[in-house]
Each structure stands twice: as C-alpha cells, then as structure tokens.
Design a protein that fits this description.
Elements (H helix, E strand, L loop, with lengths): L2 H4 L7 E6 L7 H16 L5 E4 L8 H14 L4 E6 L5 H13 L4 E5 L17 H11 L3 E6 L10 H13 L4 E6 L3 H13 L6 E5 L5 H11 L5 H8 L5 H22 L3 E5 L4 H11 L1
Parallel strand pairs: 1-2, 1-8, 2-3, 3-4, 4-5, 5-6, 6-7, 7-8
Helix pairs in contact: 2-11, 10-11
Bound molecules: flavin-adenine dinucleotide.
C-alpha cells in the first residue's frame, strides 16, 4: 500500500517500526539476529517497517539487504530511507530506479548529515527539498519526510523549519515522521504551529522505548533531542539494571503514546533500536 493510502485508511492508530543496518564485526551474525527481530515485529502487522540509510551511501548494501528480506521473505511493507547528501545526481537517479524495480512504493526522503570521513562529497542535491522536488517530477514513489518538533539543530527557528516542511508538502510529501522526543508538549506545540502555517499532512510522532541508559545518552547527543531533568532522572534510577531499564522504557513510552493518540496523532513510528520486544509491548499496552 502506498503511504498516501496508509494514512487515509480507517485503521488508525497506524503503527510503523524503524530499524537500522548493523555494522562492525560479525556482521552476518548481527544480520541474522536482526532478521529474527524483524519476524517478531511482523507479528504486530505494522503498516510499514522503515530501514535507515547511511549518509553518502555508507551502508547501502546492508540497508538494501534488509529491505529485500522484508519485501521478499517476510512479505512486509517496507519503506527504505534515502539520503541525498554527498551523492551525485547520477547515483541518486540509479538508486531510486533500483528501489522502484524492487516494486517498492514508498521512501523516506532525507538529506542526511555530511559524513566526516568521506573523501568526495558531491553537492548535486544540497537539501532534502531538492530531493523531494526530484522525486515529485521523476518518480512514482510516495515519499515521507523528516520533521523536528524541537527544531532541527541547524535551523534558525522552528518557524523556518516548518516553512521547509510546508514546501516538502507542496512537492507531494504524504506524511512526516518526527525526530524522537520525550516531552509531548513539544509535539503538541509543533503540531499546532504546523497547522497554523498550512502543514496538513500527518505528523507521525517518533517514539523510542528506552532499552539502555547509555544508548539514551548517545541518542540525545546524536539527534540533539532535549531531555527534561525529570525524564533523565526517571531513567537514571534504573541505569544499573538492564531489565529494569527496559521495563521503565516500556512504561514511559506506553504513557507517552497513549497521550499522543488521544491528542490526535494518526499513528506512531517506533525507533526500535533493532529490538522487537519493547515496541511490541507498548503497542499491546495501548491497543
Ligand atoms: P533538510 O530538510 O534538508 O533539513 C532539515 C531542516 O534543517 C530544514 O528544515 C532546515 O530548516 C534546517 N537546516 C538543515 N541544514 C541547515 C543549514 N545548514 N542551515 C540552516 N538550516 C538548516 N539520517 C541518516 O543519515 N540516515 C537516515 O536513515 C535517517 N533517518 C531519519 C529519519 C527520521 C524520521 C528523522 C527525523 C531523521 C533521520 N535522519 C537520518 C537524520 C537526518 O538526515 C538529519 O536530521 C539531517 O541533518 C537533516 O535531514 P532532512 O532530511 O531533515 O534535511
């Protein structure tokens, strides 16, 4: 099903999951583990599973391998992410064609952050806006885009960010998935501002059930997500017990999810960190 239809269907709330390609040593073993986790996620019948893509195509092959596993073996609707930063126009055109030839109908169109270690950095597409303009004119894919309830770290203001989002909508973006956040007030404020500025596409909140305190600290650092003292302290209490952290993560994310759906979010996008259990339990708790 194409993105446009998914979020128009009457099956709300609509759940989706995100996974990322593993890297480092014992890659094959890590991939096998991920495929087992994907099979568990599949049991929740998510509307989509999205697969991240390294900026500059750094993990192109593993990302595609996961996309193919989901599509061909697990028969699961899949949405590859695609980043245009540091890629040539020719490469981008070829990759989009490859995705279409796999009979995939949806893509998450992103700019990506410039990798520090890349030698040749093309500037053919400088922002996600240029990528979505390309998709709008040259592809049949439905595409989603990223949104930032706490503002993109490089944007001058939340209003500027929303203006870019509105332009992406004008090029045909069917929905936006948000950066992870832990304070729902930020989403409420963002959603209201979006509506005022003419952004009408579904804004799907990104939910991350915390499974490790260390990982939480790393994600906050990487994504620029702000975390309130009370949330930080809530998880800090459990930092020495993995089991208790997972339990607390499920409890926190369930409450957060319930409130977001009550506010009117059409669906939830779970940052699974490649583990099925927590996100699946959250869905069970709220349905
Ligand atoms: P853009 O739309 O081009 O930029 C986003 C916003 O940032 C713009 O609205 C603009 O206001 C502002 N902005 C950006 N750069 C500047 C600048 N230099 N000056 C002023 N304003 C600026 N990254 C990956 O590498 N792989 C992934 O698979 C991936 N998946 C993601 C999934 C989601 C749901 C989200 C929210 C993010 C994801 N990212 C991923 C991270 C994303 O690539 C970065 O946040 C990137 O910096 C911006 O990408 P974008 O598509 O939002 O870009």
């Amino acid at each position: 099903m194409k993105l446009g239809e998914i979020y128009k269907s009457k099956n709300a709330p609509i759940f989706s999951f995100e996974v990322f390609p593993p890297k480092g040593e014992e890659l094959e073993h890590k991939m096998e583990n991920l495929f087992l986790e994907l099979a568990k996620m599949n049991k929740q019948k998510p509307a989509l599973i999205s697969v991240t893509y390294g900026a500059g195509g750094s993990n192109r092959n593993t990302s595609l391998k996961i996309v193919k596993e989901l599509k061909n073996h697990l028969k699961q609707p899949v949405m590859p992410h695609f980043t245009c930063v540091c890629s040539s126009r020719e490469y981008i055109e070829k990759y989009i064609k490859e995705i279409e030839e796999l009979n995939i109908t949806n893509i998450l169109a992103l700019r990506g952050d410039e990798p520090k270690d890349i030698e040749v950095c093309y500037r053919d597409f400088k922002s996600a806006l240029e990528l979505v303009e390309y998709l709008c004119r040259h592809s049949e894919l439905d595409f989603a885009v990223a949104a930032y309830p706490e503002k993109h770290p490089k944007a001058k203001s939340l209003e500027d960010d929303i203006e870019v989002l509105r332009k992406k909508q004008d090029f045909g973006a069917k929905c936006a998935y948000t950066q992870v956040f832990f304070d729902n007030d930020r989403y409420y404020n963002f959603a209201e501002l979006c509506r005022k500025k003419g952004v009408t596409i579904p804004l799907i909140p990104g939910i991350m059930p915390v499974i490790s305190f260390k990982q939480l600290e790393r994600i906050i650092e990487l994504s620029g997500t702000k975390i309130e003292r009370r949330v930080f302290e809530y998880f800090e209490k459990y930092k020495d017990s993995k089991e208790d952290t997972i339990k607390a993560g499920i409890e926190f994310a369930s409450k957060q999810s319930q409130e977001l759906l009550k506010f009117g979010a059409l669906g939830l996008h779970f940052y699974t960190l490649n583990k099925a259990q927590s996100s699946c339990e959250v869905i069970e708790n709220i349905t």
